[in-house]
Amino acid sequence: RWDEFHAITFYGGNINSIFMPQMAIDSAATQNVLNLEGVREIKTRPWKDYTYSIDLIIDHEKVNLTISVGQAGDKDNNDYLKSYSLGELNSFMRFSFENAQGFEKIGEYYRIAKSLIAILTKQKNIFFETYLSQRGSDNKFFKTAYCKFADPYDNYSSKKYGNVISVLHIFDYIPKLVDSIVNNECEPLLTLLPEDNRKINQISVTNIQDLCTALEVSYEWDKQHRKKDGLIVELKRKIKDAIKEFTELHPELDPSKQTTISSAFQYLDYTLKERIITLYNENTDSIDAVVSKCSLPKISDTNISSFVNLRNNNSHSGAIEWGENAEIYPALLALVYACLFKHLGITDEKIKLLIQQIF
Questions:
Q1: Which of 92, 220, 246, 327 has its CA 20 to 30 A from that of 302?
Q2: pLDDT for 142 beyond 60
């Protein structure tokens, strides 16, 4: 069917930053200097040397993710006074499926790929090209359609390989990361990523609010493993017992219907400041490395409290006094990244290296 596909491929653009196309070149065999006869040889390595594949499950569908480098054909280049191009190399990510997919699935697979690349780039204003393929009778893919997506960006991220996280550095964790993207667990982090190169080093009131939300979500990921969170459960149980005892003594008052005790129970938890301190203590080495690298103030109870108050004051009074209260913003953003990576099962030692790559 013309409106179905067996693979969707994303190539070029910011994908080239997280997976360098240069790895396809055999540098030992390539002659970079013309010899006396004007001959220059450019040799590529075997496809298997730079192709990586891993299986995923997306919406109960078995999917194979392949990451490699594709070679475009030679052509006349009309943009440069009819120069002749020998071709180009572009890295690509391809989702391939056992069962043909309908066109209605294109948007979801695009969202997953875009979110994955944005997280590794630490920017949302990214771009790449997309095409669909079908599987022929020879079990090989052939292109059937090119896809175009509108976006709101005035410019695109120009980050190079050294300032992003290489997809190979987290390759084994991609299935869990894709699961988190599909389940919208990464949305709080994606909301924090800049969409304009001119605003990379700017912080807005909305950023403060969104970062606090992201930290609250991050705290929930490992909540069942913390002993201190068990104390909140015990506290709630004790309060329930006290309410029951009170009601038996005063049946004329029903606390659950006549008071705000139910809403108090619903939101009974550690303060945001306390939760941020806990997350920092769990990721001290990674965050302190960012603090040192970026010459930020050391994380303390005082500046965490000041940061949280920025959000609270804006929410309650609509006024915000910046001062130096937002200086730890980059460190707290790094903390959200660290929590996500820990949620994926990445070791603390590796998280520290990954975080320093993008901060």
A1: 220
A2: yes
